[in-house]
Amino acid sequence: GRLRGVKGPGIFLIIPFVDKMIKVDLRTVTMDVPPQDVITRDNVPVKVNAVVYFRVMDPAKSVVKIERYIVATSQIAQTTLRSILGQAELDDLLARREKINKELQIIIDEQTDPWGIKVSTVEIKDVELPQSIQRAFARQAEAERERRAKIINAEGEFQASKRLSEAAKVLSRYPASIQLRFLQTLKEIGAEQNSTIVFPVPIDLVKVFIEKLGKK
């Protein structure tokens, strides 16, 4: 048949069995790309799905140039997704997804442009990893948590030892404070356990009494 032209809103005369009207939706279409099995450049098998946002910019081309533009766009999206992700490493796929999304959008848009299609956005939705890779990531995350916990504990021990060192320096300058602290500790223990504690008299105190008795 022959294309008579694109019609906008309004009333038009269509001759039965002679003319055929094809409606083209000009709104943005949200199309889910089914999960694709991909092997990344570093030989990791993954399953990836995506979503594509596009709209018809030229209704005449979408009817004349391609038979079913939605199906064709879906096929282009699937093959492009497998091709681009097959050239990327797993770390890029997980950490640099925005860059890959942009690359996918540009390529799919260029390939569908002759059909009057404008692809505005392509988003990778889910990346399904093998169980072995998931377990490896879990072990790595656990090791990282343990490493951070050890650093925190080491920092706490360092601060505690620093405080003890400072306290030791103070006590070394004032020996009597050690005896007072000793008596205070014994008093606290006796109060908690309701018991009598016998402890030796300090040598310095005994020496004082002996010297006084010798003088007498």
Automatic annotation (TrEMBL):
GO terms for cellular component: plasma membrane; side of membrane. Residues 1-141 form the Band domain. InterPro entries: Band-7_stomatin-like (IPR043202), Band_7 (IPR001107), Band_7/SPFH_dom_sf (IPR036013), Stomatin_HflK_fam (IPR001972). CDD domains: SPFH_eoslipins_u1. Belongs to the band 7/mec-2 family. This is Band 7 domain-containing protein.
